[in-house]
Amino acid sequence: MAVAKRKLSQAFRVSRKLALLSGGFLFVLGASGTAALVFAPANMIPGFKEETRGHCKTVYQSEFRRGKEKRLIAVVSGDDLEPRERVKTGLRIARHLSETLNPDLVIVQMADHQGPTARAQLRGSAIGAEIVYAPIPTRTLAVSQPWEVRYVNSLPTSTGYYFGERVDMPQTEIEALAHEIELVAGCDGDLVNEEVETVAAGGQGEPAKPAGH
What we know:
seven-stranded mixed sheet; 31% helix; 2 domains; alpha/beta
């Protein structure tokens, strides 16, 4: 009788182990399923629409002359976060302005779309990158090479300001980045019939300086 009880007790213990193992296995499966749901790529979630960037709008644009030179300045607000993409948008706009308005020198300053929009505030830390383009450098006294790019190596704050190290991009890197641009075009937020403000030399057409400049 005692032997039979021991066998029954052993069988019960085995059953408990099996139950615990089975329960643990189901728990792992359940947890894995939950994890797969929570950590699944966002683009696999129904109804998800990936946010695209590279949009911009010209906040201020002016033409002026310095001696015989025709210069153009544009302040552009964009939604690019990474410094490289911000510069890339600025390069695209600079080439577009050069090809459509034919200035000797183009200066494009990139601001953030969440930053200030008043002209007087678009300076200092409100500027995240400055792109200078002279398609024919010998026609201007401002530069000695086609491109000059300066940018703040940081993401914009929630209020659209840039704080960080100021970087001068090497010419070879600028040219390599310019070759990545597939389509040279203006900002998608610009109005087709928007008139360009023109100011005289020595007027208020001077570019704002990016942070740290």
